[in-house]
Prior knowledge:
The protein has 282 residues and is an alpha/beta fold. It has 2 domains: 46-125 and 237-280, Periplasmic binding protein-like II (D-Maltodextrin-Binding Protein, domain 2); 128-230, Periplasmic binding protein-like II (D-Maltodextrin-Binding Protein, domain 2, 3-Layer(aba) Sandwich), CATH 3.40.190.10. The chain contains 9 helices and 14 strands. A 5-stranded mixed beta sheet has the order 2-1-3-13-4, sandwiched between helices. A 5-stranded mixed beta sheet has the order 10-7-11-6-12. A two-stranded antiparallel sheet has the order 5-14. α2 (55-69) crosses α8 and α2 packs antiparallel against α9 (264-274). It is elongated and about 65 Å long.
Amino acid sequence: MTEKLSRGFVALRLSRRAGLAAILASAVALFGLTATAMPSFAADKTIKVGIMSGEDEDVWRVVVAEAAKKGLKVEPVVFNDYTQPNEALERGEIDANAFQHKPYLDNQIKQHGYHIVIAGYTGIWPIGLYTKKYKTVAELPKGAAIGVPNDPSNEGRALLVLQHEGIIKLKDGTGILATTADIAENPKNVDIKELDAGIVGRSIDDLDAAVVNTDWALKAGLSANDRIAQEQTKDNPYRNFIAVKQSDENAPWVKTLVAAYQNDTVKAEFDKVYKGTGQSAY
Length: 282
């Protein structure tokens, strides 16, 4: 009798152990599946994103809130000079930036050898021809002084707008990095003034017209009523994007950062801030 009880007791203990082991194994498996499904970020890691000062600061306040909902801490780092965010990213002072289009980045990589790639698109600001003196392109007089941005990518972009409007003609095969040296025909003998992108819009009163980046036009107080021409947006290579170092391209936080931007909540703020001058590009 005692032996039977002893055997039963041992069997019961083994059965309980087996049950507990099974429960533990199931819990581990379930935890493993859950951990795989959730993004993994270092608890003390803050993603620093370089942006330009101005309206974009308002947009990124909403992005920060959206990222926080996804467990990602984001800190915008504000710059006032377009040449700085890529240098800071390359040096590892920031983790990402969001201020540029591909022709600009391509030129920066060519000049400096940066290891920077596109992570996800944000918006596009179609460049336009503005004037305070005339109602149409046809009214521009011979010898008109027309301002254009002087940085490599935006100057070519501006000249392509002037070519599209029949004001000038560029040499055959000229690409998006055209300069005034590539002008083949200038029937109205217009005087192209190469100015800093941040100044050209503010110089509108001293010019007959100016090709101005839309964000700078907004800062200069120019409106759609002052715009007599605008570049096409279809298949436009000048979409802005979030950029990261090539070594971080597949890091888990990159997709989360992009998703924190590409959503209806941020789009609503984007539309509110840019008042229709910019368009979402994703």
